Recover the amino acids of this structure.
């Protein structure tokens, strides 16, 4: 186990909390983190680019003009790939599968490596709780205005909380996410990770 500071809603240190060294004190494996990022982006890819083949394009197959004697290059029908409304040669098809496979243990270790990197680079904040009475963007903005970290925040909450999530949704520098959906892409995109204390229990259950 290792220790780090625990902050309250006013970003004042109130206690020292223990962190699981198997999650927050691993050797940084950049290759594994990169592989996990590629896995996530590839499997989330929505393959929509699609072109028609020779058999799918409608139109006459009649030869446009005779083979010789016109001075033009020889031409096939209006469905030729060289024509405006013809089929596309070697074009993209939405039947192509871009998904890749990665072992679950590797993905879990990559996530822990990213969390360890946040701690070692002083980009991790453990907060006791954030209490907001009603859905107010102004209130959340005032809370984060006192935070002396780079304003590019990933707020991780333990359970669904509509008040927190909706209050922070209009802040361009904050993204709120459930700890169950914590992922490599968001950890790399957002500079500062704000982790609620109760989220640590769920992270420990992933081991």
């Amino acid at each position: 186990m290792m220790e780090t500071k625990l902050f309250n809603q006013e970003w004042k240190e109130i206690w020292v909390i223990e962190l699981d060294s198997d999650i927050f004190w691993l050797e940084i494996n950049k290759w594994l983190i990169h592989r996990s990022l590629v896995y996530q982006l590839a499997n989330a890819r929505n393959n929509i680019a699609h072109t028609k083949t020779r058999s799918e394009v409608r139109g006459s197959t009649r030869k446009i003009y005779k083979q010789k004697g016109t001075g033009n290059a020889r031409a096939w029908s209006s469905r030729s790939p060289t024509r405006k409304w013809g089929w596309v040669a070697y074009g993209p098809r939405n039947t192509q599968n871009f998904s890749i496979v990665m072992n679950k243990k590797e993905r879990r270790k990559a996530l822990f490596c990213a969390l360890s990197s946040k701690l070692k680079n002083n980009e991790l904040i453990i907060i006791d709780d954030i209490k907001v009475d009603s859905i107010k963007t102004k209130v959340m903005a005032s809370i984060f205005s006192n935070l002396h970290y780079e304003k590019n925040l990933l707020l991780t909450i333990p359970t669904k909380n509509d008040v927190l999530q909706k209050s922070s949704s209009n802040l361009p520098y904050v993204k709120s996410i459930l700890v169950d959906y914590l992922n490599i892409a968001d950890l790399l995109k957002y500079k500062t990770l704000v982790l609620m204390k109760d989220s640590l229990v769920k992270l420990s259950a992933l081991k």
The CA atoms of residues 6 and 159 lie 19 Å apart. The chain has a mean pLDDT of 93. The longest strand covers residues 13-19.
